[in-house]
Amino acid sequence: VADGKLEVDLEALASSAAHVGGQAEDLATAHLSSDNQIVSAQTGWVGSSAAALAVKTETWLETSRRLVGRVGGHAVDLNTDGITFATMEQENVEKVRAVIRGVGGIAGSAGV
């Protein structure tokens, strides 16, 4: 924030969104693999051991799902923010151009 104005580096924001998106994909792939291995490991367990493993598996799967969702959501939010800021920037450019056109193209007379 400079002089009470928010400044956004759109290129850096887009780069961050892409980076976090890639991390989210990697995380989802790794967690899916782990989830599948954990579920496969349940085969053959019996009695209280099977019940305990089932409880732990459900806890792990839910935690995994939430984590992957949060990181993926963060990537989506960064991307959406980039689009929002780029749209605002374009709208502001159009407003300035309209002012310039309104004063006959003489930028100095519009205070621009």
In total, the number of strands is 0
- Quickly count the domains: 1
In angstroms, what separates the terminal alpha carbons? 22 Å
Estimated structural class:
mainly alpha
Task: Kindly report the average pLDDT value.
Answer: 89
Unreliable stretches (pLDDT < 50, length at least 5) are none
The level of helicity is: over 70%
The total count of helices amounts to 2
User: What are the secondary-structure elements, in order, as H or E?
Assistant: HH
Percentage of β-strand residues: under 5%
User: What is the 3D form?
Assistant: rod-shaped
Radius of gyration of CA atoms, rounded to a whole number? 25 Å
Largest sheet: none
What is the compact description of this entry?
Pfam families: WXG100 (PF06013). This is WXG100 family type VII secretion target. The chain has 112 residues and is mainly alpha-helical.
Question: How would you describe this protein?
Answer:
- This protein is mostly helical and 112 residues long.
- Helix content is 79%, strand content 0%.
- The longest helix is centred in the middle third of the chain and has 56 residues, at 47-102.
- The two termini are 22 Å apart.
- It comes from Mycobacterium ahvazicum.
- This is WXG100 family type VII secretion target.
- It holds the Pfam family WXG100.
